[in-house]
Amino acid sequence: MAKWNLIVDLARCDNCRLCFLAVKDEYIGNDHPGVSAAQPVLGHNWLDIKRKERGTYPIVQARFLPVMCNHCDDAPCIKAGRDGAVRKREDGIVIIDPEKSKGQKQIVESCPYGAISWNDELQIPQAWPFDAHLLDEGWTRTRGEQACPTQVFRTIKVEDAEMRRIQAEEGLEVLQPELGTKPRVYYKNLHMITKCFVGGTVVKHVKGVEECAAGVEVVVEKDGREVGRATTDTFGEFVVDKLEPNSRGYHLKAAGPAGRCSTQFDLPEESRYLGVMTLTEG
Amino acid sequence: MGDHEGSTVNDIREHRVLKDGRYYLVARMSRPDAEARGVKDDDLVRIWNQRASIVCAAQVTERLRPGTVSTYTGSARYEPVGEPGRSTDLGGCVNMLNSKDSITKKGHGMQPNAVLVQVEKWTGVDTWQPTEAL
What we know:
Shape of chain B: globular
Distance between the termini of chain A: 63 Å
Number of helices of chain A: 7
Oligomer: heterodimer
Shape of chain A: elongated
Helix content of chain B: under 10%
Structural class of chain B: mainly beta
């Protein structure tokens, strides 16, 4: 049976918050019987956006991670709920019943992603219900996807086998797969949050003047094996991404028509800028 | 939907941060400036010059040049701790830091722009006084 999945592409997110506001607009003050009770005006971010800055001046990247209920296939909240308070629909969507979940605060604490909020007034746990009431009416896209001007989201209803194929084909990842909860929210370009990059500036000397060295091939090796490569831009700058945080023993080599240079470096927890490197002949 | 008290927009972390029951406007600071003042993310800081004194929540960033602080001027609140115009504002009305002169001689627009300010950790005790005539 075809089930709902959400694909989130981090490379497209600029933190404009239109999805955030669309979800607020959909749920604040609106009861959707059988799906969700009204969201409070403040304090609940059923769809939130986390921020991560990578690198240091002058190569800095701001990356944004939209997070929401993952609608896990093996959801801890379903186990934590009593009397069928949390259930999995046949189409994959996890629903926290606004009636049956009353008083069950342990459901909030059961979510390892922190995606469930507690409604103090109604005394119920609440999370983003995948806009189930809209999909049931025939909508094919969630409010967040509709509101997004940069097409971060893709709401798709496919068989699980087809989703696995798409995941492999597009290199999609889920948040904290080691938890084994089997999320239905998939991320593209998640390395922009979870991995590190190394950046630098390559210069050359032309008739005694220091110039940016564009088009220089930069190769990063670890244990004699290539782990990444990049070409310097007009400003002589390069970024080699998808390196593991807290890893050591890298060797960087740059080579172009004006010469070559190399350096060794380690990566701490965060991305780093190696500074200016000068090509020398030979 | 706006910046007024109780608006859901206050939940946007880049806009305001909830601290001790109040939503403070966010001010971005460069890492070296923040470290020199012992300021961490979400710490309350006081931004002032001779015209006004405003409390914001700090967001420490690599995306600013050292020596600069950045805030948006979209505050709809003015919540002075004492006498209005002569005390520190907790609402985040950073336009108070700007000159009151019009942008042109015969125009009505104000001139919000870059202004000189100093920043320190907010102690909770207001001793500030304006030195520019109101």
